[in-house]
Each structure stands twice: as C-alpha cells, then as structure tokens.
Specification:
Elements: H1 3-38, H2 44-54, H3 59-70, H4 85-121, H5 126-136, H6 138-153, H7 157-163, H8 173-183, H9 186-218
C-alpha cells in the first residue's frame, strides 16, 4: 500500500476507535454524572470519589486487565475480542468515561443548584430533573465530550496491549508513531505526529470557542 494510503488508513481507524469510545462513554458518563449530581442514595459520596479517582487510571493497567479478560484462557476469551478494534474501543471507553462523568457531575451540580426551587415547585421527579438538566446543559457537555476525545486520541498504553498494533487491522496513530520511531522511520512517525497535533489543536480551539460562547450566553 502507498505511504499516503497507510496514513489515511491509520488516521481513519484512530478516529473510528476514538469517536466510538467517546459516544459509548457519553452514554454512560452523562447519565452517571446527572445521577451523582441530583441523586441521594447510600454510597453516593464513595461513588463520586471512585469516579474522580478513576480519571487517573493507568492505561497500561486497564490494558492488562482487559488482556486477561479477553485472552483465550480468560473468562471472556470466547468473544475473541483481543487484537480487534472492538477491544481498543472498550479500553478507551473505560479511560474516557470517568472524565465525562466527573465533568458532567460538576456541570449538573451547578445547574441543579440554580434550578432546584423551580423543579421542586413543579414537583419534578428525580428522572424528570435529570432529563431537564441534561437538556439544558447540552452545550456545556460538548466541552466534556471534546476533552474525552482528546484523551482517547492520545491513548497508547491500553490500545497497544489489547490491539496489538497490527498493520491494516489495529494500528492507530499513537501506536504507529511508537513503532515507526523504534524502526527509525521518522518521516512516517513525524507525519502522524503532526496530524495528531493538528487534531489536538483543533479540539482545544473548539473547546476555547465553546467556553467563550457559553460565558457570553451566561451574561446575556
């Protein structure tokens, strides 16, 4: 395959894996953040601490745990997920979900404090309250999703372990950069590195613009 084709293939797989992980993380993290913000249940404080602590999970430990689960002798080996993009998506989802959940919980807590009296007057149930907060915070939550996407795109430890860095199958930008650098193929490594930097830059710019827009709307 021509070099340009390899680069396009690697970049597209990186985006596919990372975007899929962010979508899955959002489906879990946003409702979890809303529940932690408005819920009142036994062990809530402990769960909040665990979610926040999980933001610092070592990627290689997550990768190792998934490797043990998905290996042939592991409890989920029958699924044959090891060294597939699906395993990489699962790994990134585990790493990104706490980031989105923690950010969402803070956003929802602030919003809940503002809306609390109105929601009580309307006799809204817990689930109605959560739905209202998610709807009204949707613009702020985009920042959390972009932060999660940046984290996913830059991940290497876990995806290297569960994906195997297989050419034309599970090779993404970060793992390809590490491999090509070790091989001395600096042209491809630098090219992919610049693309990754460009994507990270775009994400940061979008986050800044969104934050600025939200601050302006808040003062209207």
């Amino acid at each position: 395959m021509p070099l340009e084709g390899q680069i396009v293939e690697i970049v597209l797989l990186s985006l596919k894996v990372s975007l899929s992980a962010v979508v899955l993380s959002a489906l879990v993290g946003i409702p979890l953040g809303a529940l932690l913000a408005v819920g009142r249940f036994r062990g809530q404080s402990v769960l909040i601490v665990l979610v926040n602590a999980s933001m610092g999970l070592p990627p290689v430990v997550v990768g190792l745990g998934l490797y043990l689960l998905f290996s042939r002798s592991g409890p989920l080996g029958v699924l044959q997920l090891l060294y597939t993009p699906a395993a990489m998506i699962i790994a990134q989802t585990i790493l990104v979900t706490p980031i989105i959940a923690s950010f969402s919980q803070q956003v929802f807590s602030d919003l809940h404090h503002e809306y609390d009296e109105m929601l009580r007057a309307m006799k809204a149930s817990r689930w109605q309250t959560m739905a209202t907060l998610i709807h009204d915070a949707r613009h702020s939550l985009i920042t959390a999703l972009l932060a999660g996407l940046g984290r996913a795109l830059s991940e290497i430890g876990a995806v290297m372990i569960v994906g195997g860095n297989i050419a034309h199958a599970t090779r993404v930008m970060t793992t390809a950069i590490a491999l090509e650098t070790s091989k001395g193929n600096l042209y491809l490594a630098v090219t992919l590195g610049l693309i990754l930097l460009a994507l990270s830059g775009v994400i940061n710019v979008v986050m800044i613009l969104l934050r600025s827009r939200l601050e302006r709307l808040a003062h209207v």
